[in-house]
Structure formats: C-alpha cells, structure tokens
Design goal:
268 residues; mainly alpha; Arc Repressor Mutant, subunit A; 2 domains; 12 helices; DNA-binding
DNA sequence: AATCGTACCAACCGCTGCTAG
DNA sequence: ACTAGCAGCGGTTGGTACGAT
C-alpha cells in the first residue's frame, strides 16, 4: 500500500524526493501539505514538504547572490518592517524569507566582526580604517525601529503576492548551475537543476506520454477524471482508504509518470 | 598540506494566526 | 464562542564550501 510509514524522515532531501515532491505538487498544487506528504508517499512531514518546496523547488526561485539592488531593497525594507522576513520577501520576487533572513544574518555578523576588528585596530593605535561594512552602514542601524515614514522603495508593490503562491513567477532568470548539492548526496548520479527538472516535466515527451495538452501535467485527460476533490474527500474521510476511490488505472498511469520522472532526472 | 575561521545555505523547531466545524 | 488542525513565520542550528594562515 502507499500509505505512510509512521517514521518521519528528517535531514537533507535526496533528488528522488525532490522529483517526487515536485511531481505531486505540480499535480495537486502547493496547498494541503499534510495531504501531499501522505499521498506522495514521502516520509516527510507536511511542514517539511512545504519548506522544501518554498525554499528550494519552487520554479520561480531566483538563485545566486543578491544583486546590489536587492541588497538595497532589503536594507530599506528591514529598516521599515524589522524582522518580518516574509513581508520583505514578498517585495523581492524569487527570493524566499529564509534566503533573506540568512543574508541579513550574514551581514549582521560581518558587521559585528568588522566593528570588533576596528576596535582592536584602534586599541592598537591604528587610526584610519574608514570603511564601514559596505551597504549596511546607512539607515539600517536603526534595527527594527521607527515605524514607517516616507518613501516607499521603488520596487515595492510590484508583486504583492508571495512568489511561492501557486503558479509563481514564471520569468525568473535561469539559476546558476548547482553542482554542490548533488555531489554531496548523489554519488555519481547526474544532478539536474530544478530549472532543468521543470523544463523536463513540461517537455513534450512528458506531455505526450499522457495525451498531450498545454497545461503541464495537470491538464491531462486522466487528471480531469480524477480531480483533487476526490482525493481530498477521501483523505478527510478515511485515511485507511486514502486511495480507494481512485482506480488502478489512475495509479498505473501515476506510477508510469513517476518512473518516467525518475528515469529522466535521476539517471545519467 | 593541514588547520582554522568565516560565509553561506538548508532544514528543523516552536509559536502564532487563521479557518472550518 | 470555542476548539482543533493546518499553514505560515521567525529564530536557531548544523553542515559544507572556501579562503586565510
């Protein structure tokens, strides 16, 4: 059966889990994470699935270093909003709250470190040492303080919705290659960026494999037959029978899709 | 070449807020 | 009005990469 081991997996995600999660999210949407975690057979909590999706797998994610513009924006927003990372993230398409939080922490540490150094230098008789930690020096210092006054930053308002809401920003620039993660876990397995994975998921081959259609996987005829609410009802009503109303035909199609995804993404 | 410190990133945990029943 | 369950948020921690010594 497909239901749910009791043990919950923790720690780093494998590529296989990623593919699986991406596949199911593409199918069912990025809500109902507990449901998703169960139906997908991943031994992860719904919470963990959500986090993985939001912070790593979401197709709209930007990767790589913050641009100077983004850095400036973060400073401005932080001085207004304080540690409201998710709010700040909403103004920065393609960036997650986690990413921004990490960035901020790093900057703060850097700043603290530089200050310490400066002090030591002054103690030791060094005069100059002009440079303050690059960008952070200006208004930021006020921490979370003074609730908003004037000027809203230029970009604000462009994308009020959180980028990781279903159907996030499509036109995110291609992420830089990520050799790192795969090497850690892969052990000789070819690693694909999520961009590549998404491309492949939406490729004609996959689309054709279930009858074509322009709406990624969700658009398949089979999908029309077995809609979310069916599964949902099932899940709510009786966990034991989670999959009951869904026919074997559905599952064989489903397994084929999974196999295809695995073969496509996880083999060299 | 080895060691150490720093930067960065991913993931977990606990709490809060929202919503449906 | 109350409660339980879920989603989301912010804080924190642990691991890896990388540069300096």
């Amino acid at each position: 059966m497909r239901i749910v081991g009791e043990e919950v997996r923790k720690g780093p995600w494998t590529e296989q889990e990623d593919v699986q999660l991406a596949f199911y999210v593409n199918l069912f949407g990025d809500r109902r994470w507990d449901f998703l975690s169960k139906i997908s057979g991943l031994k992860r909590s719904g919470k963990s699935c959500r986090l993985r999706w939001v912070n790593y797998l979401h197709p709209g994610l930007k990767r790589g270093k913050m641009t100077p513009n983004e850095e400036r924006l973060i400073l401005e927003l932080h001085s207004k909003l304080g540690n409201r990372w998710s709010k700040i993230a909403r103004k920065l398409p393609g960036r997650t709250d986690n990413e921004i939080k990490n960035y901020w922490r790093t900057q703060m540490r850097k700043e603290a470190h530089d200050k310490k150094k400066k002090k030591q230098q002054q103690k030791g008789g060094g005069g100059g040492a002009s440079s303050s930690p690059s960008s952070l020096s200006n208004s930021s210092s006020s921490s979370s303080g003074s609730p908003g006054e004037e000027s809203t930053p230029a970009v604000v308002g462009a994308n009020e919705r959180a980028f990781y809401d279903t159907g996030g920003f499509v036109e995110a620039p291609p992420p830089p290659p990520r050799a790192d993660n795969g090497e850690k876990m892969g052990g000789g397995v070819k690693v694909y960026s999520m961009d590549e994975i998404w491309k492949a998921i939406e490729s004609p081959e996959i689309q054709e494999s279930h009858g074509g259609g322009e709406r990624s996987m969700i658009g398949s005829a089979i999908w029309d037959d077995y809609s979310v609410w069916t599964m949902d009802y099932d899940y709510q009503e009786d966990e034991r029978n989670l999959v009951a109303p869904v026919s074997d035909q559905f599952y064989s199609w489903f397994d084929n899709q999974l196999d295809f995804a695995h073969n496509t993404f996880l083999t060299g």
